[in-house]
């Protein structure tokens, strides 16, 4: 329990982070409630003193060790992260990398248990249910607090998930628009993405990188 008035998230120093996607400024934010160390990665944007500038682009990226680090094709996370870093390097904005969100909040071990159930036929929703775990246990309070401390109270959110927008807005961050965060579908993640579209209400077109061969 955080004492009344105490900061929920505590910022560390800002450091330079030169990457394959461009030069960013990075900062760790420690959640005083959970100990989770979140990372913001930001690039400067267009002149915000111009009349009616577009709100800054923000990607709230839930940690996915298999996708982000090992480039797993079971999900779309790794490619979404790369796409977001490229866009934000170009247009300015922030990627907020949310620790403790692994497996939609159930953790890595349970995510791999869910994968085993998916290999036995369950979809991504059924697998969590069979484990007796929530389908999506993520909370966005720390994310909202970090954005508000960064002065980002009005943003454009890079996401396909309308529930993410609603949950963030409930904590006081206004989302001007959802900017699609869609990457081409692959044979390995097609069922997974279909389930997100059909059972979790994600806005997905499921476009393929290459047209399906006919005949
Ligand atoms: N429980 C579970 N979690 C998964 C599975 N595949 C990926 N994840 C986790 O899902 C999280 C990403 O959530 P998604 O539902 O893919 O997407 P989102 O963040 O809600 O929406 P976008 O902003 O559009 O990416 C990451 O933490 C992944 O580790 C799975 O099959 N089961
Ligand atoms: Zn993933």
UniProtKB/TrEMBL annotation:
The answer to keyword Hydrolase applying to this record is: yes
- Enzyme class of the recorded protein, top EC level: hydrolase
List positions binding Zn(2+). 64, 75, 77
Per its UniProt record, the required cofactor names are:
Zn(2+)
Q: Copy out the cofactor comment.
A: Binds 1 zinc ion per subunit.
**UniProt keywords, alphabetically:** GTP-binding, Hydrolase, Metal-binding, Nucleotide-binding, Riboflavin biosynthesis, Zinc
Q: In which pathway does it act?
A: Cofactor biosynthesis; riboflavin biosynthesis; 5-amino-6-(D-ribitylamino)uracil from GTP: step 1/4
Q: Where is the active site?
A: 136, 138
One annotated GO molecular function = GTP cyclohydrolase II activity
Report the EC number(s), separated by commas if there are several.
3.5.4.25
Domain GTP cyclohydrolase II: residue ranges? 14-180
Q: Which SUPFAM superfamilies match?
A: RibA-like
Recorded catalytic activity of this chain's protein:
GTP + 4 H2O = 2,5-diamino-6-hydroxy-4-(5-phosphoribosylamino)-pyrimidine + formate + 2 phosphate + 3 H(+)
Positions annotated to bind GTP: 59-63, 80, 102-104, 124, 159, 164
State what this protein does. Answer: Catalyzes the conversion of GTP to 2,5-diamino-6-ribosylamino-4(3H)-pyrimidinone 5'-phosphate (DARP), formate and pyrophosphate.
Per the record, the similarity remark reads: Belongs to the GTP cyclohydrolase II family.
Q: What is this protein called?
A: GTP cyclohydrolase-2
Q: Which gene encodes it?
A: ribA
